[in-house]
Amino acid sequence: MNVVLQAERLSKTFQTGGEAFHAVKGVDLQVKLGEFIAVMGPSGSGKSTLLHMLSGLERATDGRVTICDVDLKNCNDEELTRLRGKMIGFVFQFFNLIPVLSAYENVSLPMLMAGHKESAFRERATWLLSRMGLADHMHKRPKELSGGQQQRVAIARALLPDPPILVADEPTGNLDTKTAMDVLQLLRDACREPQPHSLVLVTHDPRVAAYANRVIFLRDGEVVGDIGNPSSAQADGTPFAFGRVIQQEWEALMA
Amino acid sequence: MNAFVWKLGIRFFAARKGRTFFSILGISLGILLVTAVQIVFTSLNQSYDAMQRQKYGNYDVLAYFQTDGQGLTNQELDQLKDIQGVEALQPILYPYQNRLPRYFSDSLYDVGLTDSYLSRQLKNYDIAQGRFPLPHEVALSPGIMSRHHLHIGSAIQLSFPHRGLVNLTVSGELSSDSQKNFGIAVYDYAWLQKITGIKQATGIVMKLRPNLSENRRSLALNTFTNTLYRWAHRMGRTITIYTKGQLGALGNATNYIAAFLPLLKGLSVTSIVASIYIVISTLQISLQERRKEYALLRLLGVNGRQLTGLVLIESLLYSVLSTLAGLALGIGLSLVIKTISVQMFHVQMIDLIISWQPLGWIALSGIAVMSAAGLIPARQVRCLSPIEAYRSAEPSDDQEDDLVSAIVAPSLILLSLLLVVLTHILRFHPVLYVVGGLGFVVGVYVWIPSLLQGSAWLSSKFLRHLFGSQILMASRNIVRHRSKSALCVGALMLTILIANAGILLLHAAEAAETAVVSSNFPHDITLNSLGGFSPALATQVGRLKGIDYEEFTTGAFAQVINAPRKNSGINFYSAIRSLQGTDLQTDKRIDHFRVVAGNIDSRRLAHNGVVLTASAANVLGFKVGDNVSFKNPLTGRTTNLQVAGIIKGTTIPFGAPFLYTSPAVMARDFSVRDLQNIQINVTTGNTGEVLQTLRGLLRNPQYQNVELINKLNEKQKAQEAVLLFGIVLGITILTITVIAAIVLMNHTASAVRMRFRELATLRAIGMTKGRLIRLILAEGMMISTLGGLAGTVAGGALAYLALMAVGHPSGVWLLIPTLCGSVLLSPLLGLLASWSAAAWAARQEIIGVLSDQ
């Protein structure tokens, strides 16, 4: 599989009150096309900072990030903006839909802003929304949708430009268990053929991480664990076995 | 910019309907005011113009040679027509100027005119009945027609030099209102040229293009009149030029409104500034609320240009809708002002004149400027980091660097005060007072964030003990959102500043108008005619009981030729009419001038004596005992008079007469017997009765060119102008107060929305609804009180310094009630503006807010 996202000796240091705080320390990571990676860690472990650097939202203090062979260090702000629009789909904990737009318009937003004609993506947008189970809710505004439905709109929005990478920051953090499982299933499906996407997901919930192919554990900005899911390639249901492994690793980490 | 950016911009704009409505209303108030001022004052000016046109005709310049000789060739007429701004020009032929040809027993004043719109504007030659004369036809004044039993179609014979008797048909009768129409004969211009053999024009009437700006109009008039003076000087001829303004002054239709126009323009600009302010504040509040959405757009790949476009679209929508609303409301308001002015205060206004061109410019410039105001928030959006999209918490508190406010502002205030003190002590140019005042205002404005900090400190130390803990929380909240709080304080400061400065300036303008009336019309009644009238009128005036009066002859047709100061800067026209005859000893009864050198003895003046005003003595360079030589440029005759005295402080108005001799000398040496004006003071008599008698006297056709000017009428006109300005000022203050209240309403609503969770938490931990309402009201009141105080100090200072600059630092006592009013009313304004937000916050369900992200 092709490497779509690569981080080498990635570090981030913040200056707070005259003191240096090392949020991320020398992280190396490779994400292949179609791979689903979960990043776990306790609060303040640097997982969100890592995600921000991987998606070009924050610049690294040291090390480098390459997205589809483009070194982010060489990009200015406008180039980064274009790169994000083309290469990365975002899914947030709080959905972040534009309240004045309908579900369909929210999904279309990145393509329209990039100057594409609606006719070029209308079919795909409709198909994505139908796939998310929102065929009957396309013209509703976010406030008329439930939390799970809003998150599915956000996933469809992330998928519409067909980016090679999806990043998701606690995408189920604001959903009930049943809805969360549905959303995770959709995200996992998105990584598979016919259009494979890589997914980097940040969570502190082992049950969520259990859907991933690979789980990376962070503590104090350093990678302290990296385990693979041997059954994920075949599994369609809730991966309980891998969940128990992650739970044990997590408890060890928190101890 | 793609269509979706437009769509999104429109959706953002329409998202908060209540606030959008109030913002549009607020912004439109600025345009409303400019529109109303434009319509009302254009209407008023045009009403004056229409009255003037009705009286004198619709032309800008009337000029004619007073002496015989060469006239204007066709080539010269073409050159005059080519002067930029000239719309039309028609030649006039006065063939026998100064020759007084006689036909039967009457003297006829022959005039040749072209049959044109412009020629028909000459009211002296207005044909009331019949038609404009063709070749071999004549139009006569009614006096001649009636005395000789002539009617339209009558055949008469008139004698022309070198031609003898010529047969003519009477084609028309001139208007009975025409001045001196008892001896006028109007002919076709070309025919009269042919019959008299005079091929050149001896007079012209000219009209400028109607849509010229004031500057271009003034430039065109100057170029035109200067060209004529230059040519007349070259030809050695005397030319009389009447411009529209001079005609207006003749008819005492003084346009007092014009004096207020700079102030009104200032007010209009201020209201537009207030509108721009509201656009920026509304967009900033909108930006604050949509911070996360904008950041999300950045994150999803929307570039900075598109984001700027998004904010500018919103700004454009606000501007366009506000401008349209402002124009419509402005037209409505001008109707209201007109109705109030005409019905309640009897201001003379014929009709409302809505000129779409200036309104179009107002609309376009309003839209352009207010849309451009969106660039400030657009820049802030552009700088927004996409990472903001990840933040679930409310935006962080304002982290502005207060160094500018804490250090630069006091320095600016101190420097401004220093400049004022130095200007006062070292007598620098007075405009520096205004510069100092503006510096002070800017300093106070920049200081606002520090003042907010200061209020928080004051609350923590003292006010909390008086008003409870809410005041402390309120002050800290204000400091938290100090950039937006400063915007509100600034808006209120602007309101109070305009109120204070406006009231002082109104007082000053009223004083100035009164001074203009007193200076132009020093006496109760003036009888005036540039052409002159018989001294018999003075004899009849002298018989009236209970009055004092002074009389002046027309100016001598003579020029001072031996002034020691050759380059005196006096123009030819003024200098040639500078000597008048009067009895200064009699005049002293009502004109309290001082004799600063020599004497004004009547017998001395009757023996070739002349008295100069101090300014004339200074300009010409004469002193007591010097000989002044006057030369008649027509006859070449020279008359010498000796300076008997110099006077100062005379109140004699009209023109520039600054040399006086006795009426006897005027008659003997200059053949001047006619009077130009009589000044009357009513002492023990009844003014109404005196006026009635004078009007009766002036019904005599002999005096129909005499104007009667009643000082009381002039005062009333000046007061009308002051009143109108007062109405507009009042509306401006009200308008800007509403704008400030809307800014504060927007701010409070936005601050409450941003702190929903925080306020719900306060409710959850035990804060009652009442205390919550009081907390929000306290925030609004603190902001408005600070704005009121800052505005009072800054407005008072600016107005006082502006008055210092023009030399009238009076009426400062007027600041005391406005100061007290501002301080008392500003917290009330804050209370009213924040009430709806406070009630809204109290109505929210605690659980709903806490569970809703």
Descriptive keywords:
heterodimer, A: 255 residues, alpha/beta, Rossmann fold, six-stranded mixed sheet, 8 helices, 10 strands, B: 853 residues, alpha+beta, Barwin-like endoglucanases, seven-stranded mixed sheet, 30 helices
Describe this structure in words.
The complex is a heterodimer of chains A (255) and B (853). Chain A has 255 residues and is an alpha/beta fold. The model of chain A has no long low-confidence stretch (mean pLDDT 85). In chain A, a hairpin with a 2-residue loop joins strand 1 (3-16) and strand 2 (19-32). Chain A has a single domain, classed as P-loop containing nucleotide triphosphate hydrolases (Rossmann fold, 3-Layer(aba) Sandwich), CATH 3.40.50. In chain A, 35% of the residues lie in helices and 27% in strands. Chain B is an alpha+beta fold and 853 residues long. Among the domains of chain B are: 1-61 and 238-396, no CATH class; 94-197, Barwin-like endoglucanases (Beta Barrel), CATH 2.40.40; 523-713, Barwin-like endoglucanases (Beta Barrel), CATH 2.40.40.20. In chain B, a hairpin with a 2-residue loop joins strand 3 (102-103) and strand 4 (106-107). The model of chain B is unreliable at 97-106, 248-254 and 568-574 (pLDDT under 50). Chain A binds chain B through residues 48, 52, 57-58, 77-78, 81-82, 84-86, 90, 92-94, 96, 98-101, 108-110, 112-115, 157, 161, 169, 174, and chain B through 2, 4-5, 8, 11-12, 14-15, 292-293, 296-304, 306, 385-387, 389-390, 392, 853.
Low-confidence stretches of chain A: none
The CA-CA distance between the termini of chain B, in Å, is 33 Å
CATH topology of chain A: Rossmann fold
Number of strands of chain A: 10
What's a concise summary of this model?
By secondary structure, chain A is of the alpha/beta class. Chain A has helices at residues 47-54, 77-87, 103-113, 118-131, 147-159, 177-190, 206-209, 240-254, and strands at 3-16, 19-32, 36-40, 62-67, 70-71, 88-91, 165-169, 198-203, 214-219, 222-228.
